[in-house]
Design a protein that fits this description.
Helix content is 12%, strand content 45%. It is mainly β. It folds into two domains: 35 residues, no CATH class; 87 residues, Jelly Rolls (Sandwich). Strands 1, 2, 3, 4, 5 and 6 form a six-stranded antiparallel β-sheet that branches. The longest helix has 7 residues. The protein is globular.
Amino acid sequence: MLSDITTGNAPVDARDFSNWFIGDIKKWSEENRTSFAPELFRLRDNSDIEFRWGVCKKDEERSGGWAHCSNCTAISILIRGHIIFKFRNPENSHEFARYELKSEGDYIIWKEDIEHWWKTKEDSTILTVRWISA
């Protein structure tokens, strides 16, 4: 059925939801006090998986410090640029692991309960997907 097709533009569709463009849009709309129209969001409204389109300038870093843990597994895939990720050891908050994504297609996957932080070394675009961990 042709109504089972949704198209869009990730940066445009993500602007109201902290760069997330597929996910629990009904919940995000409530949290951001924006209207929710199922016919507008169609297949983008999904409580099982979330997609984020990140476009960052050189030397940009995650604001607010470490990202809190979630109940999701996540993958970030570098589209272009160079990004450094740090992950804090959940058993010792003074220890962390550092990883760099610097070639197109580089990715990193992490499980729930791991706080992370990132900083760009050059203008970068990254796609992040997260889903509820089994």
